[in-house]
Design a protein that fits this description.
By secondary structure, this protein is mostly helical. Helices cover about 70% and strands about 0% of the residues.
């Protein structure tokens, strides 16, 4: 087979585009983990709900696509804060904190995933729904034609990450988020409203998942079972980048997207979903903490 540089470049560009979506979801998972010390196993269903809510805003109400993204993010943030306050927080009050109540949180996360999926089945059914959005003519990059949905996905994803980075590093509330993520007890002593900040962290993570769901809508159909596979890919991205590392989540997502796209192009498209986990295994073999993770040293 003759080497075609344009084809390789196209596969990399499309891989980066889908990778930044993985990165956004992984960013939400890492944000919740860094702040709450838990893995939110219902994150894929939040992503799925966000896609359907964005579809509702765009196709039923008729709001412009960018506002559909914002509406879905607000809805998912409120839903996430409700879930954290009503379900997860009760477990922590009974178990002595997020770290202590770990097993109950895991079971609750899986139960929440099943519950949200069944609620979605009752509302939208099992059929896949198209998400048509007219964004204009494709962008021509030499001989490569890039759909506007891919361009918008990359731009919005990077914008979300820049805004989140600015919020965490340059605002008082972002400083409170970092303080809670570092040590909740010390944050209490500093006068920070830790329960409120935890709800904010959970809401931010869920809002990122919803944004990813709306962005992926024009590229794929929207269906109830779309969250499970995305959760696995985003989890792989978070581990590849270094679990709990926010920059690592983005880089890990991009690497997973490129790796699976090149694997589908040059090895076998029927096994596309396997390549992300092959990359995960390789990274864990040579760098168990992930590319940007830090190995904690515990003194005996």
């Amino acid at each position: 087979m003759d080497f075609d540089f344009n084809s390789l470049l196209a596969f990399i560009i499309f891989g980066v585009t889908i990778g930044v979506v993985y990165g956004i979801v992984a960013l939400g998972i890492s944000l919740i983990y860094s702040g709450l010390d838990i893995v939110h196993f219902a994150h894929g269903e939040i992503y799925m709900f966000g896609a359907f809510i964005g579809l509702f805003f765009s196709q039923v109400i008729g709001v412009p696509y960018p506002f559909a993204i914002i509406g879905a993010m607000i809805f998912a943030a409120l839903l996430g804060m409700f879930i954290e306050r009503v379900f997860y927080r009760r477990l922590t009050q009974a178990g002595g904190g997020y770290t202590v109540a770990g097993m109950g949180m895991i079971i609750c996360g899986f139960g929440m995933s099943v519950a949200l999926m069944n609620v979605a089945y009752l509302i939208w059914g099992a059929a896949a729904e198209p998400f048509p959005v007219d964004l204009g003519m494709p962008l021509q990059l030499g001989d490569i034609s890039i759909p506007q949905s891919y361009v918008l996905t990359a731009v919005v994803s990077m914008l979300l990450m820049v805004v989140l980075n600015y919020f965490i590093r340059n605002t008082k509330l972002g400083l409170a988020v970092r303080a809670v993520a570092h040590n909740k007890d010390i944050a209490y002593l500093m006068g920070i409203n830790v329960p409120l900040v935890i709800s904010l962290i959970f809401g931010l993570g869920c809002a990122l998942a919803a944004a990813a769901g709306v962005l992926i809508g024009p590229m794929q159909s929207v269906q109830v079972e779309m969250g499970y596979l995305m959760l696995m890919k985003a989890f792989a991205a978070a581990v590849v980048g270094g679990f709990g590392s926010l920059p690592g989540a983005l880089i890990g997502g991009i690497l997973v997207g490129i790796f699976e796209n090149l694997g589908a192009a040059y090895i076998s498209p029927s096994h596309k979903d396997i390549y992300a986990f092959l990359l995960l295994i390789l990274v864990l073999i040579f760098r168990p903490s992930g590319l940007f993770g830090v190995i904690a040293k515990v003194k005996a």
